[in-house]
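Q: Hi! First time doing this. I have a protein sequence and I read that you can turn it into a structure. Is that right? Here it is:
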Amino acid sequence: MKVTAIKILICHAYRTNWVFVKVLTDSGLYGIGEATLEMRELTVAQAVKELERGLKGKDPHNIEAFWHDAYRDAYWRGGPVLMSALAGVEMALWDIKGKDLGVPVYQLLGGRVREQVPCYANGWFSGAKTPAEFATKAAEAIKRGFKGLKWDPFGSAYMNLSREEFREAMDCIAAVKEAVREQADLLIEGHGRFNLPTAVRVAHALEEFDVLWFEEPIPPDNQQALAEIKNRIKVPIAAGERLYSRWDYREFFRLGCADFIQPDVSHAGGLMEVKKIAAMAECHHIPLCPHNPSGPVANAATLQLAACIPNFYLLETMSSDVPYRNRISDEKIHFENGMMRIGDGPGLGIDIDEEAIIEHSYRPQDLRHYQGALTQIRPDDAATYFSDHKQ
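A: Yes, that's right. Below is the predicted 3D structure, encoded as C-alpha cells:
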C-alpha cells in the first residue's frame, strides 16, 4: 500500500473553520485527520500540502518514520503551523493503519485502560452577558449531565482589570457557583490575558470559589513567569494548549508550571506526540486534560488517547455546535452522566461527508477574546451533536 495524495477540506464552523485532512492510498483505503488551527486555517492547509511531497509513494503504516523525517526536514522546527499540519496527517495515517488491521487506534497504542472518560463543558454560556444569564445557562448545562463548567468571565480585559471589571468577573463566578449548587466543578479560563500581578490577584480571589483550576492566567510566552505564579497562589493551574511538542514541554515540566496539562491533538503533532507528552507528565504525577474545542475528527482522535493513556483525567467538550456537525461527519457520541463513551470502530471510528462540507465553505474569522464578543461562541441555531444523549 502506498500513499497517492492528500486532500484538504475546510468547513466553516462559526467561530472557526475545521481543517480536515484526507490521506489517499492506491488500495482505495483512506484516512481522516484534523489540522484545525483557528484563524490560520489557510496557512495550515498549505503546510499540509507541503508535507504531501514527502509522503507520496510511501507506506502509510510507517508513521514514526514519516513524522521524524517531516519534522527533521522542516528545518524551522516546531510552532503551531508545522505541528498542526503534522498532526492532521499523522492522525489520518493512524486511521489508515487501524482500518487496515480492523482495530481501533487505541489498540495500536497499548490497548484500553478505560471505556469512557469524564467530560467538562465549554460553550455552555453562549450568548450570556450578565451574571444572571450565566447562572441560568449553567443550571441548564447541569440538567444536561455536565459535571464541570469552564468559561472566561473576564470580558475584553487584557493585562489589567479595573475595579469594575474585577467585580463583574467575581459576581459572574459567584452566580454560576450558586446555580450549580456543588453539582459541578468550576473551571476558570484566562485565555492568557493577564500580566503577573493581575493573575495573582485573580487567583487569590478564586480561592473562595473552590475552582478546579485557573487556566492560562498569563500569555504562554514566559514559562518562568507561569511557574512563579503557580508558586505564589493556592488554586491549581492548567496550561499547555499553546505548546506544540515534547521539547516545548520539557522546560514546562522542569519549571513546574502547572498542575494540569492541556496539549491539543490537532496542534501538538498528533496522537503519538501527545502520548509521549502524557508519559512525561506521568513521571511528574500530572494529569492530562487535553484542549479539545475543535471538530468531530479531533474529538474522535482525542477519545482514542483517552482510551489508552493512564493519566488522562478530563476531556474538554463543547456543549453544542453548528447544526450541521452531524451532517458533515458520521460522528456518534454517547454522553451520559458526565461521561463520554469511547467507541470501538476501526481506525479513529469516524468518516466525513465531502459534499456536506463543501456546502459550508471557508469564511475568515477573527479572535473574539479581547473584542467584547467572547460569549458569541455559537450561532443562534446551535444544536447538540450528542446523537444519543440522555436527559
